[in-house]
Amino acid sequence: AQSVTQLDSQVPVFEEAPVELRCNYSSSVSVYLFWYVQYPNQGLQLLLKYLSGSTLVKGINGFEAEFNKSQTSFHLRKPSVHISDTAEYFCAVSDPDPYGKLTFGQGTILTVHP
Amino acid sequence: DAGVIQSPRHEVTEMGQEVTLRCKPISGHNSLFWYRQTMMRGLELLIYFNNNVPIDDSGMPEDRFSAKMPNASFSTLKIQPSEPRDSAVYFCASSPRTTGANVLTFGAGSRLTVL
Questions:
Q1: Cβ contact B43–A42 (<8 Å)
Q2: Would you tell me which residues 1-60 of chain A have a C-beta closer than 8 angstroms to some C-beta of chain B?
Q3: N or C, which end of chain B has less CB nearby within 10 Å?
Q4: For the sheet containing B19-24, what is the strand order?
Q5: Which residues in chain A touch residue B91, judged by CB atoms under 8 angstroms apart?
Q6: Which pLDDT belongs to residue A53?
């Protein structure tokens, strides 16, 4: 079974500072990787996805992630965060099956302070 | 497109009562998923359908839980009887059946509180 580990449950950071949210996955097969964001009292919104090709993936709101197969990691980064980035972020993995079933990590709460 | 629509957004009920959560997926999406989110267990996949057929219900916690998809535009998740430990946010998501990865689009969730 696949599993996803998000290494930090909470990440506090000051506005305009860079941030990295860490994600490791365990799978013996090729996978698709995703980052979703959840704002308070809302559903999950897709930030970015890695399917194949370039290991550096750019998403919405200035976020990017790098797929590292040898380290089985898919860390999320942003060079300069805003107050509005305060949310919970979920890393997810999917086998390349036709249904798109996702296994999620436990989530990382990013809090951006002024 | 209105996205994935879930109802009710909030439900408060007493232990032993029946609860029905509803979901309308995005038109044209062939796969539908029910997830549950709790502080202790995070996001858990309960069941998913493809073309209205249940594919995997191994995540359904107990026989008290059941899900149906009578047509392509409607699904229900029912808990009968409900218990306090069922309190959680229940999300419905849908995705298109295409080649390559299918991206899930989530609804806003139904927050269930069982007293």
A1: no
A2: 32, 34, 36, 41-46, 49, 51
A3: N
A4: B5-7, B19-24, B74-79, B65-71
A5: 43-44
A6: 86
Task: Give the CA distances from residue B93 to residues B24, B52, B62, in Å, rounded to whole numbers and listed in that order.
Answer: 9, 14, 21
Query: Residue B96, class by beta-carbon neighbours within 10 Å (0-12 exposed, 13-18 middle, 19+ buried)?
Result: middle
Judge whether B39 and B31 are in contact, CB under 8 Å: no
pLDDT in tens, A42-92: 899 999 999 888 889 999 999 999 999 899 999 999 999 999 999 999 999
Q: Which tens digits make up the pLDDT trace of B73-113?
A: 999 999 999 999 999 999 999 988 665 567 889 999 999 99
Q: Cβ separation of B43 and A34 shorter than 8 Å?
A: no
